[in-house]
Design goal:
Length: 374
């Protein structure tokens, strides 16, 4: 039996060797650091659709499928991420954008089925598990007809070309192109800002940010043992997950907003204050179920600091860890103070291009706080 100290030493040595290989890939590839990590995850699980980002948009009201198809063709023509492919040369991934695309959006009619909704759900569930060919097309889409006045736009994109912010951009632009198709002005449709321009000219992050995350890497605690894990990893990776919904309700939501405005919780904005409160709650919960005093939770940074980048579809999001040490006698207020300091450092140093395989490797909990205005 290998002693624990020796085993850990070997593990660190193996990790360092892998890190050097990844750094070599990064120097030769034109993928962004965030893309490279996603590509590696897919490469390690070639038969699992781990990074399929599947969305279905229900459209109430009559639409013209032919105009919708033309609008989608325009979306592909004017958005470079939908024409992007990734090939390998000597094991190094390279991304290119095709000048044109012949993709024709299929229209699938479920309106004659006994239960159109169930039939469409079954179709989407099966379709969503299909692997996307990185060398051919990194998205899959269709228009599903449930009745004359109810449709579903199905969109599946590989995470290598998109994030949640991008989906809203594409949805709004498709809506715009559809209106232009109806009025015969689609030929004047404008391009979306090109993601490849960003990838090719990605700014080097400040050395302070690089140093900050290099230091963080040295002290990231081990992943939190969660219920049912028993320290084991599934033999076959799968993208199938269960989602649980919980609504705070108006009273608790208002109480949360009021708490966020108190001197103990108030920060730069109401949304950062609320993010800190949720983060503190998650830290406290993880401490209670694990007993671990050193904890880390990852959070996404959208990395769109300029007006142009805010209108650019692509994968900009990168994960960074926030970590705290929970001491005996810790109160919610004292923990919130620690979280607030970590949150400010996160805002300052979570810069595009800084993400690294070693930063969040051992973090298995992610808090994604999304502000939605209706």
């Amino acid at each position: 039996m290998v002693p624990d100290s020796q085993s850990k030493g070997q593990s660190k040595g193996q990790s360092k060797g892998l890190g050097q290989q990844i750094d070599t890939l990064a120097a030769k590839s034109n993928l962004t650091p965030g893309q490279l990590l996603l590509w590696l995850g897919q490469k390690l699980n070639p038969k699992a659709p781990l990074y399929n980002m599947v969305f279905s948009f229900t459209i109430q009201g009559e639409i013209d499928p032919a105009h919708f198809q033309r609008a989608f063709q325009a979306l592909v023509a004017h958005s470079d991420i939908l024409r992007l492919t990734i090939t390998e040369a000597d094991g190094v991934p390279q991304q290119t954008v095709a000048a044109t695309s012949n993709y024709l959006l299929p229209v699938i009619d479920f309106s004659t089925d006994i239960d159109p909704i169930q039939a469409s759900q079954t179709w989407m569930q099966q379709r969503s598990t299909c692997l996307l060919n990185l060398q051919d097309c990194l998205f899959d889409s269709a228009l599903l007809k449930l009745s004359s006045d109810r449709f579903i736009w199905y969109l599946n994109q590989h995470h290598l070309i998109t994030d949640n912010w991008s989906v809203s951009l594409l949805y709004r632009r498709l809506q715009e192109y559809y209106g232009q198709s109806l009025t015969g002005t689609l030929a004047t449709a404008a391009d979306l800002p090109a993601f490849l321009h960003y990838a090719e000219s990605e700014q080097q992050p400040a050395w302070q940010a690089i140093t900050h995350w290099q230091q963080k890497r040295e002290h990231i605690p081990s992943s939190v043992p969660l219920y049912g894990q028993n320290g084991q990893t599934a033999e076959v990776a799968t993208a199938r997950t269960e989602r649980t919904y919980f609504e705070l309700g108006p009273e608790r939501s208002e109480a949360l907003r009021a708490l966020a405005k108190t001197p103990e919780a108030r920060t730069l904005s109401i949304h950062q204050s609320q993010f800190n409160l949720f983060l503190t709650l998650v830290f406290a919960y993880l401490y209670r179920i694990s007993g671990s005093h050193k904890l880390a939770i990852a959070a996404p940074a959208h990395n769109r600091p300029t007006p142009v980048l805010k209108e650019t579809p692509g994968v900009f999001m990168e994960l960074f860890p926030l970590q705290v040490d929970i001491e005996p006698g810790e109160t919610f207020t004292s923990l919130l103070g620690k979280v607030a300091r970590e949150s400010m450092a996160f805002l300052r140093y979570a810069q595009s291009g800084v993400s690294h395989h070693g930063i969040s490797r051992d973090v298995n909990v992610v808090l994604s706080y999304i502000n939605v205005t209706f």
